[in-house]
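DATA SHEET
Item: assembly model
Revision: 1
Owner: S.N.
Input lines:
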Amino acid sequence: MNHTLSVLVENQPGVLTRVASLFARRGFNIESLAVGPTEREDWSRITLRVDCSQHSIDQVVKQLYKLINVLKVNEMTSDDAIERELMLVRVTAQPKDRADIIRLAEVFGGRVCDVGPTSLMFEAIEHPDTLYAFEEILKPYGIKELVRTGRVAMRKATTERTRSSRMRVLA
Amino acid sequence: MSATNPVPAMPDARKRTTTTGEMTGAEAVIRCLEAEGVDICWGIPGGAILPLYDAFARVEHTVKHVLVRHEQGAGHMAQGYARATGRVGVCIGTSGPGATNLVTPVADAFLDSTPLVVITGQVPTHLIGSDAFQEADTTGIFMPIVKHSYLVTDVRDIPRVFREAFHIASTGRPGPVLVDIPKDIANQTLNFTYPETVEIAGYKPNRTGHPLQVEAAAEAIARSRRPVLYVGGGVLNAHATDELATFAEAVQVPVVTTLMAKGAFPDSHPLCVGLPGMHGSKFANWTMNKADLLVTIGARFDDRVTGKLDTFAPGAKIIHIDIDPAEISKNRHADIPIVGELKQVLPALTASYLELRSQDRIVSKREWKDQVEEWRFKHPFRYRRVGPLKTQYVMERFRDLLADRDVIYTTGVGQHQMWAAQWLKIERPRHFITSGGLGTMGFGVPAAIGAQMAFPEKTVVNIDGDGCFQMTAQELATAVSYNVPAIHAILNNGWLGMVRQWQQLFHDERYSETLLNANLPDYVKLAEAFGALGLRAETEEEVDAVIMQAVESRRPCVIDFRVDHDEKVYPMVPAGGSSAEMIDEPWDNEWVEDGV
């Protein structure tokens, strides 16, 4: 099962290595990893996507908390969080095909960011699943190069759980 | 009763120095050690750590430095000191090879939760990353085996870093903390004041056990018919041996003590069932396997204790009390987890249980205790005193001859270690110091030296194997030069005995590369070459005399006990096997009839 972990860490040298090596040492595969600044200069946030059992993820969360530089670990599901990822993709596009491809890309929120003689570069910021769909659609045209940032996530103000408990009250 | 024993100083001996003012980073390190109450440290100088050693010679200070012969020795000595006293051990090495030689003791301290502060020199900051002479990525190498690490990049950070390092090493679940200091940083100056307080945003180790969970645990113990206290080394780290004794007295149930917990509960106490696991007693393993409740106290369901996990204590409900939340349900699901400090949880649990007892709500455990007693009576550890000298006999003689003395034992790793754990009686906490988790051969010699330097007046005996001894034997030079009279008792069978035992039992007697030769070296001459006392015993008749001669000499001493190379440690749970199914000497198989 896939899990998204959002790990708030102190912004210090070596902290990414500590987190990443913990996953390696405990035998977990990281599917996706995104690191960046947060609302505070002395904090960073690491968003990880891992595939493992619930027991294992509980163990990982506890192990993460043992790292001195880790401040907070949130486990998120697609239901209670907004998840986004940025993709850049260069696709073969002869001049006659450009209009078609651009129209198609719009469906997936893809925006042209560079035009070459026989290619187009798109950027898209979407839910990672949408990006996979977008990639599938572009494949027949010939993908020359593709890069994704790894997903980032943030919990929704109203989560599935609080909504459902409200429903029970209403019922 | 451990309550009557002198408990070593708690790790709060921090004396605040008034030293302040302009000084180099190197001197600041010494002032930090003083402020933490460090009276002794072990190490070897080298290029990158030279500024610190220069400061040791240049300024007046109260930190004794012990020059060892190999950094691994420094690390294990600091461990021996830490395990004997409960305080933070400090060791020092230079960059590169100095640091890599410390990897083994640090990994050992990490697995056995021993508080260490490890100081390493590093190449100057402008050379870091350039593959400079004696450069190694020290913080990178140590990352998976330390509780935390620092690479100091600003000289003004030194006081804070050391304050944090000692705090992290000694609180919560203790462990090693590395401080890597580049040479140029050590030479820069700062205005020194040692911080009074420590504030680490991501580190809040002090926890109180949840009162409702404590009540639930007391209820479970009260209702249980066959409970067992499964006690691990965490009790020692928590300085909670008195609290454990009070608790055990209150609940009156069998107490199993793991290798790491040997001495945490007196071996002679009628409730003490002793060593479980791979080479534990049948009665300890059966007690755990037939229990309906394991009260797990600072233990971690290590594979050497549990054997095959799915068959371990199959009918038992689990109460798991630990300071480290990551241990809860790691290997075995905990029905009632309690995360908290044992020093607080155990008294709370005792009170809760006594409350239930006053309400007459305790289910009798009489039958269960009788059963355990019967097993204990019928299936003690045993061996045959026929043929060559047996290690077990030597252990019995140490146990009986030195029963009236205050003896700290250390061990190496292997057969002799298991026999020491089986046959010695340890009545006081912190008097049995062994490498449990990492299983580090060579631990015994330096650990004994470290423990002896902590308690010069006590008798310290290192029960060692010949293979183990040769891994750190050079520290005899340290022992002699500082006149550290620890006794190194080599149970010399001329083989890597435990490996040989596995080869005999599980590899069709193919003794691949395990023959060492009992005469190589001549351990008596080797001891004498170092200026130590060298003794030898080859028969039972000679054993008492050499032990007493060694103890009374008060000199660094090596005893070469020539023991049977074919003797095996029994009973034994084969690796990955069920701990209910132990194998034993072919002559000893009546257990099958009563077996669990």
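QC remark: Chain B has a mean pLDDT of 94.
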